[in-house]
């Protein structure tokens, strides 16, 4: 066993440390797919380019938490002129188009010092859910205490009562864990670190628009057991902070500074993503186009599915 430490500390080291999960050779794509990968990524990229045009984001698209450049590749294939910049904890991925810029990030909530987008659409796709945060649990006496974890074994213990800024955040945004109705074992992921990371990103914008896309929750529907979980080799597994798996927790989207918060399904409908299948007569006139249209409609359907990607939240804020 190793000494128990606060979850936020173990989480950060596990994902972004020297041998962290996101620094591995295979990268996240070796363990799971996101909406930026494959056919869904192409449909999403087209919608984001339309969003950038509609909102007057003449400075291009910045992808924060860009992974190995999956979304950037789709964007470049669709538009060979739009300025693109990727930001992630790893060095520039091999095979990325030469005109796509790249900044290496410290990871987590920390952004590169010289990141200062101007008039750009800044996309943070599943970034905030992997910004480590304090995890707390209601004990047998009804007190909310910080959860400590053995980074190697995964065993948890309860530490000191939550206080200070973390307790204040809960009182404002996750009151259920402090009410008399809270029961032992109820958990909270304190979103203060995500709020700060988002505020830092917005503070760097010179014009333009920031968009966070993530799974999350709002007041009135906070999950009483929390959402901290892990993924390894395509499967959801018990969280362990040893660098072998992704660690993620849903975002309290209504605690973020925002001009608009809506479901991805609604946002994509506004941007012309419908999921309609191509006209059947096209199958005989142009079979290749028909098959391509079917593939695209299937990808669009996946992005719009309210039980899947369509249930993601979009948080939009002007710089």
TrEMBL record:
GO molecular function annotations of the record: protein-arginine omega-N symmetric methyltransferase activity
Pfam families xref list: Methyltransf_28
Superkingdom to which the source organism belongs: Bacteria
Swiss-Prot/TrEMBL keywords: Methyltransferase, Transferase
Annotated InterPro entries: NDUFAF7, NDUFAF7_sf, SAM-dependent_MTases_sf
Transmembrane segments: none
Protein name as it appears in the record: SAM-dependent MidA family methyltransferase
């Amino acid at each position: 066993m190793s000494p128990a430490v606060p979850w936020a500390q173990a989480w950060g080291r596990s994902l972004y440390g020297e041998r962290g999960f996101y620094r591995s050779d295979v990268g996240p794509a070796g363990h799971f797919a996101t909406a930026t990968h494959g056919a869904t990524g192409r449909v999403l990229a087209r919608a984001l380019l339309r969003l950038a045009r509609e909102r007057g984001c003449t400075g291009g698209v910045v992808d924060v938490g860009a992974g190995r450049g999956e979304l950037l590749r789709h964007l470049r294939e669709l538009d060979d002129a739009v300025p693109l910049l990727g930001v992630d904890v790893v060095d520039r991925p091999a095979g990325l188009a030469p005109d796509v810029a790249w900044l290496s990030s410290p990871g987590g909530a920390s952004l590169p010092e010289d990141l200062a987008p101007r008039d750009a659409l800044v996309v943070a796709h599943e970034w905030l859910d992997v910004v480590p945060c304090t995890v707390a649990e209601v004990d047998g006496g009804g007190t909310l205490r910080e959860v400590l974890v053995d980074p190697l074994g995964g065993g948890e213990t309860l530490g000191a009562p939550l206080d200070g800024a973390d307790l204040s955040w809960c009182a404002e945004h996750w009151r259920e864990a402090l009410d008399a109705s809270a029961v032992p074992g109820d958990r909270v992921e304190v979103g203060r670190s995500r709020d700060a990371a988002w505020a830092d990103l917005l503070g760097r914008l010179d014009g333009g628009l920031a968009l966070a896309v993530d799974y999350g929750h709002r007041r009135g529907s906070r999950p009483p057991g929390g959402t901290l979980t892990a993924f390894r080799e395509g499967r959801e597994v018990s969280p362990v902070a040893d660098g072998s798996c992704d660690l993620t927790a849903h975002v309290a989207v209504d605690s973020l500074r925002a001009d608009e918060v809506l479901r991805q399904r609604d946002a994509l409908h506004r941007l012309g993503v419908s999921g309609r299948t191509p006209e059947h007569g096209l199958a005989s006139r142009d079979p290749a186009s028909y098959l391509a249209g079917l593939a695209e409609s299937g990808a669009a359907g996946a992005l719009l599915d309210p039980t899947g990607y369509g249930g993601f939240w979009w948080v939009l804020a002007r710089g």
